[in-house]
Amino acid sequence: MAKTKKTLFECQHCGAQSQKWVGKCPQCNSWESYIELTSEQQIALKNAASTHAHAAPIAITDIETEQIARFSSCENELDLVLGGGIVEGGLYLVGGSPGVGKSTLLLKMAGNLALSRRVLYVSGEESLGQIRQRAERLGVCNPALFLLNDIKLESILAQIRANDFQIVIVDSIQTLFSENLTAAPGSVSQVREVTFALMRLAKECNIAVFIIGHITKEGAIAGPRILEHMVDVVLYFEGDPSREMRILRGFKNRFGNTSEVGIFEMKHEGLLSAKNAQRAFFEGRSNAAGSAISVALEGSRALVLEVQALVSESSFPRRSTTGFDGNRLNMLLALLERKLEIPLNRYDVFVNIAGGIKINEPSADLAVIAAILSSFKNRPLNAKTIFLGEVSLIGDIRETHNLDARLKEAIAQGFERAILPKKPKTSLPIRCFEATEVTKVIEWM
């Protein structure tokens, strides 16, 4: 009896698989994204999955501890996010929206590293002349920086092995394809196969490989989620292309922590490490109603931020936030209506964190409330005052962690007063005032 051919369908958005075709992917909710894999694609997928199938188990006490060898990327902010520098044999994924500066940063890094190492920059999107022109603008045209305009995986791997490169940059992963698969470049199968091959190359040859990945409209790396699981480090570039400031965040790092951020400025000569990042998010601030200052922690770095609010009477009230959680804003507004009896249900409320940064911690709650009340009463706040504290649903204000580090940064930037739920234990040259409940904030308006 003939063997029945096994069918396999795969979602082209998230990589989910099914034995039968479905109209809507149960994983990512995409419609008509399932396509049938050919027998060749199924064989390639099976071979990739069984790369380490014959490895024998080893007692953990018999395994020697590996010493991680790092070297500087020649960019201080990038080194900070990477945990101290680039690791030999590491596979790095850099994502971000178009025009944010991914290619610019990595090309500048490649040119600087080419002063002491052989570097290959593989581009499937730009011509060699375009890359050369950009490198001249960045001032990184070095003879040890090699360019390759190719999208075929097999020929790229052959060039890397033949020329003994130490660092490889691929721009971008969605443009490469393998001859072993019939799928189009950028498809789930191709992205997975190409990434597997680059991962094996990095580990076998001890080469640091950087991959640039496009992002979807939801802000995630385009392609299957397995892509992020395969690499050692995942970095995301954030920032509005119309503004100078860019923020680099680490979302995964097998060689260090992911709490640090790098801050860059986009200038004519490319992305530069922000020399005065601590002042970048509130410099040029005007002392107008609706503006309050807080201090957020990004890893080990304290950043002074300006919280802006606009409260305007409206027949159809709206709430909108930029850089602040919308659900948390709704909670704070409901709290103000209940505790202070302010009829915000008849007003539009807009909140913005200046500079394009996003706040992911509750320490700015008090500053958000202060900015909203300032805008509602059309009364400017003291320009030398900061607000720090988490606001709970019952209306009390709670302490934030690492208070001393935040206050020291505020002092360094010239602030003289702080509104806090509790005064710090150590004596600092800043006047601190306690506000343990939301109802007491109105006293500082």
Search tags:
nine-stranded mixed β-sheet; 25% strand; four-stranded mixed β-sheet; 10 helices; 445 residues; alpha/beta; globular; 23 strands
Question: Would you give an account of this structure?
Answer:
The protein has about 450 residues and is α/β, with parallel strands linked by helices. The protein is built from 10 helices and 23 strands. The protein has helices at about 40-50, 75-80, 100-115, 130-140, 155-165, 190-205, 225-230, 325-340, 365-375, 405-410; strands at about 10, 15-20, 35, 70, 85, 90-95, 120-125, 145-150, 165-170, 210-215, 235-240, 245-255, 260-265, 270-275, 290-300, 300-315, 320, 345-355, 385, 390, 395-400, 415-420, 430-435. The strands form 6 sheets. A 9-stranded mixed β-sheet has the order 8-7-9-10-6-11-12-13-14. The protein has a 4-stranded mixed β-sheet with strand order 15-16-18-17. The protein has a 3-stranded antiparallel β-sheet with strand order 2-1-3, with no helix packed on it. β17, α8 and β18 (about 345-355) form a beta-alpha-beta unit.
**How much helix, percentage-wise, in residues?**
25-40%
Structural class, by secondary structure, is: alpha/beta
Q: Report the count of strand segments.
A: 23
Radius of gyration: 26 Å
Low-confidence segments, given as residue ranges, are none
